[in-house]
Amino acid sequence: MSIDLPLNRLKRALRGGDVQIGLWSCLASPVAAEIVPGSGVDWLLLDTEHAPSDVARIHRQLQAIPSNAANPARRPARHQTGRCQPSLPTVVQ
Q1: Which long-range contacts (CB under 8 A, 24 or more apart) does 22-27 make?
Q2: What is the C-alpha to C-alpha distance for residues 12 and 36, in angstroms, rounded to an integer?
Q3: DSSP states of 56-89
Q4: Which of 76, 74, 72 lies closest to 85, judged by CA?
Q5: Integer-rounded Cα radius of gyration of the chain
Q6: How far apart are CA 93 and CA 12, in angstroms?
Q7: At 77, phi and psi to the nearest 5?
Q8: Are the beta carbons of 64 and 34 closer than 8 angstroms?
Q9: Which helix (H) or strand (E) holds 12?
Q10: Is 59 buried (19+), middle (13-18) or exposed (0-12) by CB count in 10 A?
Q11: How does pLDDT run across 41-54, given as a tens digit for each residue?
Q12: 83 pLDDT band (50/70/90 cuts)?
């Protein structure tokens, strides 16, 4: 059984040498995650190291990012190994 992964436009563009413009978001809000990608950025990084995020909030943010908008990425909190394992189900491609 094969699984078709969604196209990662960011990785494809970087491989092709295209300039990519992105934004780091510490807002930890699904509303912001829905609105910010519409600003024309190519990628949006959800910074969970400097924002009050938990697994449920990260999941809601990823769900809120429109599929035709910026590619999502996530920066996990460092030095908190206990928070990394539960966040694995919300892995971003």
Answers
A1: 22/70, 22/73, 23/70, 24/75, 25/51, 26/50, 26/51, 27/51
A2: 22
A3: HHHHHHHHHS-TTSPEEEEEPPTT-HHHHGGGGG
A4: 76
A5: 13
A6: 12
A7: -65, 135
A8: yes
A9: helix 9-15
A10: middle
A11: 888 888 877 777 77
A12: low
Q: Can you read off the two tokens belonging to residue 80? A: 């908190």
67 exposure class (CB count in 10 Å sphere: 0-12, 13-18, 19+): exposed
Task: For residue 31, give both structure tokens.
Answer: 């509303």
Give the tokens for residue 68.
């035709």
Convert the pLDDT of each residue in 1-44 to its tens digit: 677 777 778 888 989 999 999 988 888 888 988 888 888 888 88
Q: What share of the chain has pLDDT > 90, as a percent?
A: 6
Return d(Cα 42, Cα 23) in angstroms, integer.
Answer: 8
Which secondary-structure segment (H or E) carries 24?
strand 22-25
Q: Which residues belong to the active site?
A: 50
